[in-house]
Every structure is written in C-alpha cells, then in structure tokens.
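Here is one chain, start to finish.
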Amino acid sequence: MTSAPLAHTTPVTADLVRGALDLEQTHDGLLPHRLPAWARAQNTDGQLAMAESQPSGVRLVFRTRATVVELDTVPTKRVYVGAPPRPDGRYDLVVDGEQAGQASATGGNTVTIDMSTGNAEMSSGPAGGVRFDGLADRDKTVEIWLPYNEITALVALRTDAPVEPAPPSGRRTWLHHGSSISHGSDAASPTTTWPALAAAAGGVELVNLGFGGSAVLDPFVARTIRDTPADLISLKIGINLVNADVMRLRAFGPAVHGFLDTVRDGHPDTPLLVVSPILCPIHEDTPGPTAFDHSRLAEGKLSFTASGDPEERAEGKLTLNVVRDELARIVEERAKDDPRLHYVDGRVLYGEADHAELPLPDRLHPDAAAHRRIGEHFAAHVFADGGPFADTES
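Its structure:
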C-alpha cells in the first residue's frame, strides 16, 4: 500500500481491540467475533453466523506518535445476484475523539448470494487494507473503526512510530442488542450507525450486539449478554420476530420474560432498557414474513414487502403494534419489582414525522440520514438528564 516500508509492525492482539467478544485466529488473519465461541457453537443459522462476524462497533484503539498508519486486512464483501453492487465497507479513523479520515479496503473474499434461491458461493482473494497518513506528530489516541458490513480478518498494523495499547477510557460501557438497524443497515460508515452516534453523544464505550436479521430472542444471546461486563444494557426487540415470522403471541411473552430473566441473572442492578421497533409501515399491522419485492429487484432495486395477512393477527401472528403493546405491558409489570428496568417506544426514535421526512428507502431499513436522526433521538431521550441512562455521577 506504500512505496516506503514503515518501520514498526505491531501484531493485532486483544489489547488493541475493543467491541469484540472473541478473536479467532484464521488462515486469513485475526477474525473479530461479536458472539463467543460457545454461543457460535449453538447457532445453526447462516444469517446470524455472517452477522455476528461482521464487526459492527469493533475498533482498534492504541496510543502512538505515528504520522502514517496502515492496516492490512482480508475483507469479505457481499454481492447479490440481480441487485446493484454494494459500496465497499468503510474504515473510520478517529484521533483523540475526532473524525480524522476514512478509507475502504481493496482485495479480499467475495460471497455471491442469490436471494431467489438462498444459495451463496465464496470466492477467495488477496489481502487488502487501508492507509491513513498526515497524522499529527504528537502522542495521541488512534481508533480505527472496522466496517460494520464486511467480515474483516486483521492481518497487520504498520506505523512509522511505536504503538502501545490505549489505557481504559474510564467511560461507562453500553451493551446494545438489536436487529439490522442496530447492526448498521445502510449507515454511511461504522461511526455513523445510530448506536455509534448515540454512544458518542452519551460519552460511553459501545459493545454493539446488533445482528442483521437475527434479533429473535435466542437464549444463547441472552446468556452472552448475561456474561458480558456492562454498565448499561439496551435490548431492541421486535422487527426480526415479525419479518421472519418466527413465533406467535403465545410464545412471544414468555420468551421476552425468559430473555430478561437471563440478562438479570448476570446484571441484577444494571439499568436495562427495552426498546420496541421503530416505525415500519409495511409491518405496523401486517404480519410477516417479509419478502423481497421481485418486481423492483428486476429493476435493479432492493426493496421489501410484507407477505402476511392482517387477518392472521387473530391467530396470534405478530405485527409491530402487537409487539409494542406486549413489550409495554411486560415492562410495566416487571418494573414494579425492577425499578431499573425501562421501556422506550421505538417510534420516539423514528416515527410518523421522521418517516415523512426521511422514508425508509427499501421500506425496511433507515438510510444514513435516518441513522443520524435515530441516534440523536436516542441520546436525547436515554442519555440526557432524567433519562434511563443519565450519568448521575458526573
């Protein structure tokens, strides 16, 4: 990536990585995971396997005087048959808390996915990487945020000055679990997913367990949250249960109780926030499953539609309004004995007025501007004075 070799090569080790729950040594390099190995062993779903190994919220953090930083990686990019090419994932450089650069990695592997059949084929490619130069010649904290939407094996970190792990920030740790919207969906970059924006506004360290298509109350996810140190926990529940059509109302309530019970086993007094789905008109009163809109796919546009029947609500099928009502009821009931349990209606984060101004481009996921709106609303309602995550010690 550079004509002049840099003097210092630093192995990428756990003390440089934040936001990952496990690091796996692979033939491509060190692979960050957002689920531990024991939880991955209990998962048989390919979508979750892909999502948890995409490093949303994962970043390298170190101290250095370097003016040039190179990170060699092996990214895994996705191509959807018949759909427009996806933009390359972005790496964000943050220096002493300020945005300082952005780049994309070349090379790497490619997964070609046929959405009509569900088949996926992998082709291997060479290592790529990113280079940032022109950094100030002074001691500083450098963060490299990895792409939220590309599996990223870490190969080597090279600089023109020594590197050492950054000391703990002293900030509270916020662990958030949710769906593809929390994972990043169509955000512009890793530091502009709505959880990353909200974390920056709230002055907290983010652990993002947003898993695209995979927030379905899996017990091993609840046990992962139970076992992960955190000062603040939020759970965004609902959209994947509806659009995957994985359970009925009879099972939903007990599953939510069980998930919360497990989290509370490890975090009995931690502020715990349940967030219901943001506005999504196709599923407000229409059950799933969500389907690809093949008429628009033929035009090269990715879009979704609800394939359920509103009448099926009588049979216990879930819609977003059904989910919100049940979550509000469960939290109100439990909060009588759990004063640190809170609820936020997702339409406070993105509702009718937001949709009118910033509609969901594919009818399911927010775009970059809507991510910023959701992050701002979350920070204003949750981290601000009087909110459930307000810092009462500052």
